[in-house]
Amino acid sequence: MKQRVGLFTNLQNPEAIRWAEYSAQRLLELGAEVCAAPELASRFAREVSAQILVEPLEHIGELADVIITFGGDGTILAAAQRLLTYGVPLMGVNVGKLGFLAEFGVHELDTALHAFLHGNYRIVDRTVLEAEHRQMRYYALNDIVVEKHASPRMVRLRAYVNEHHIADYRADGLIVTTPTGSTAYSLSCGGPIIAPNAHVLCLTPICPHMLTLRSLVIPDDCQIHIHVLSEEGAILVPDGQRQEPVAYGETITVRLAPYVLKLVKHADSSYFDLLRRKLLWAADATSIPSVP
C-alpha cells in the first residue's frame, strides 16, 4: 500500500516552498502519493501540481500517513495548531536556523524521505497544553504565555497550582511550558532544559521584579490558575501563534490537553544527541577560532 504524504510550508519562505516542491517530486519518484493544500500546490510547477492530490489542509489531516513541514520550529507549531486533533504525525524539515522540533536538515532530505518510506524512523508522543479562558480552549505544544499588553509596565499575575497559591508575579509575563517547550522561550528566560519524557510542567517568569522568583517544575497532572491583577489586562499567547486579550480580574486555567502530538524522528538518535548537536555541547572551545 502506498504511503500518502502531506506537505505543509511557511508560505512566506521561498526556500521552504522550493524544498517542498523538490520533496514532492522525489516522493512521487519513490512511489508515494503526495497531497498539499491549494495555497501550496499553486506555488509548484504545473507538471508537479498535476500529479498530487490537492485538498484543504483539514482533509489532508484525515488522509495522510504523515505530514512533512518545511520551515522552522514555528512552522511545526503552526501545523500543530491546525492538525492536532487528527493524530497525524509531523515530520519537520528545517529550512530555518536552530530547529529543535524540525530536526531533519535539507542536506539529508533525500536520505530522510527514503528512510521514512522504508519504515526506518521512530515516532514520539509529545504532551500538549490546554489553556481555558472565557469558555474558549487554546492548545500549545511548546508553551502558554501570559504577558503584558500594550504597556511598558510590568504585568501583575497571581498563580495557583491546584488550590495552592504559589506566587504573585510582577514581571513582563509568565510562561507555562511543556518539556518540549523547555528549549524555547522558557530557556531564554533562564528556565531548565527538561527531557521530553519527563511528566512535568514548568512555570518560568519573564524578567521578574523579584530576583527570588525562579522557574518552578511541577507534576503535569496539576492545574495552573493564573489571575490577572493588572488594570491594563494581559494577553494570552499559545505557541506564539495568536494573541488573545485577558481583562483585569479574569483567570486562565492551564492543564494537559487530551491530545498528544506525534513527531517523526531519526531512527538512530536520541534527545540527548539532539541537544549535543544543536547546542554544541561537545564542541571544543579551544578549537573555535577567536574573533580578531
List keywords for this structure.
2 domains; alpha/beta; Rossmann fold; 18 strands; six-stranded parallel β-sheet; 8 helices; Tumour Suppressor Smad4; single chain; 292 residues
Q: How would you sum up the global shape?
A: globular
Please give the largest β-sheet.
6 strands, parallel
Q: Given this structure, which CATH class of the largest domain is correct?
A: Alpha Beta
Strand content: 35-45%
The stretches of 5 or more residues where confidence is low (pLDDT under 50) are none
Radius of gyration: 21 Å
Name given to the CATH architecture of the largest domain:
3-Layer(aba) Sandwich
The order of strands across the largest sheet is: 3-2-1-4-5-6
CATH fourth-tier homologous superfamily of the largest domain: Probable inorganic polyphosphate/atp-NAD kinase, domain 1
Mean pLDDT: 94
Under CATH, the topology of the largest domain is which? Rossmann fold
Q: How many domains, as an integer? A: 2
Sequence of secondary-structure elements? EHEHHEHEHEEHEEEEEEHEEEEEEH
Q: Strand pairing plus helix content: what structural class?
A: alpha/beta
Distance between the termini: 58 Å
